[in-house]
Design goal:
This is Tetratricopeptide repeat protein. This protein is mainly alpha-helical and 281 residues long. Among the domains are: 7-148, Alpha Horseshoe (Serine Threonine Protein Phosphatase 5, Tetratricopeptide repeat), CATH 1.25.40; 227-270, no CATH class. It has helices at 11-23, 27-43, 60-70, 83-93, 99-112, 117-129, 133-146, 150-166, 170-181, 188-201, 212-218, 227-242, 246-260, 263-270, and strands at residues 52-55, 75-78.
Length: 281
């Protein structure tokens, strides 16, 4: 039996049709479908009240990260669908025509889906094109705060590299790209940019060295993934294990291992029981 709540806005079909139009490069048609959906939603939206606020999270880690980072004063209720995604899609579709409206739509997306760093990357990209480097850097930092996937942490450091390349600090940009590769080794973007740096400078790109840490600290650039994110994932994994859910614990411990490479965490994963004690939950 399908337990998905009733789709009173026609969200599922509209998103599917929007993506289909987008894949056909029909931006106008995609926006028409999306704007109709948004109009339906905004006529009867989820509205925060005195007791609760309504947000969407893909998983328990995102929900707890929001609690830790935002410290909401009311109960946080899960929306039945990711309504932030429709605003994010609209923001991406508006990118070429109206950067300010694109940013406004993406900000709405973030307000509903607050633990999704890719929204911040999209906003940062808009500001990059506008050459507003302060905002580009600010939104990259915001993305770092909530990034728990290695691909997103890698994107953070690639963005930092873009910032310093734009300010002609090629050696530091190269070091940041090498840091990004620690999180996403097969990144074509990082590898190709490093190759371009080598071609332009006529020398091998500068790798991180003993002075890199001091430079990162001076520039207020993190040296690695957010420790708070790592700790939250670890704590949730331990709780899941104690409650008899080793599969969920493994997923969370794997996130921690991916972000840290900690051998002790790898051993925890190897020692996990094979099946959940409460599979019906």
């Amino acid at each position: 039996m399908d337990n998905q709540p009733q789709d009173k806005y026609g969200y599922d079909e509209a998103i599917q049709n929007t993506i289909a139009e987008q894949q056909e490069n029909n931006t106008h048609g995609a926006l028409m479908i999306l704007n109709t959906l948004i109009d339906k939603y905004e006529a009867n939206p989820y509205v925060d009240d005195d007791k609760a606020e309504y947000r969407y999270f893909d998983n328990p880690l995102e929900a707890v990260l929001y609690q830790v980072m935002a410290e909401p004063t009311k109960e946080v209720e899960q929306m039945d669908r990711n309504f932030g995604y429709m605003y994010a899609l609209r923001g991406m579709l508006l990118f070429n025509d109206d950067k300010q409206k694109a940013i406004e739509s993406l900000e709405l997306a973030h307000s509903l889906t607050p633990s999704e760093p890719k929204i911040f990357f999209e906003i940062a990209e808009d500001y990059r094109v506008l050459e507003n480097w302060d905002e580009f850097l600010a939104y990259t930092r915001k993305a770092w705060e909530i990034s728990y996937l290695t691909e997103d942490v890698a994107q953070v450091f690639r963005n930092f590299a873009v910032y310093y390349l734009s300010h002609d600090d090629i050696d530091f940009a190269a070091q940041l790209l090498f840091i990004s590769l620690a999180y996403e080794q097969d990144s074509d973007m990082a590898q190709s940019t490093l190759s371009q740096i080598a071609e332009v400078t006529g020398k091998e790109p500068t790798q991180p060295d003993d002075d890199t840490g001091a430079r990162l600290e001076k520039e207020n650039i993190p040296a690695m993934a957010n420790h708070t994110v790592i700790q939250v994932a670890m704590d949730l994994g331990r709780s899941a294990l104690e409650e008899g859910f080793p599969t969920q614990a493994q997923e969370l411990f794997q996130i921690v291992y991916n972000l840290t490479g900690d051998d002790a965490v790898q051993k925890m994963i190897a020692d996990l029981p094979a099946a959940d004690a409460n599979p019906e939950v």
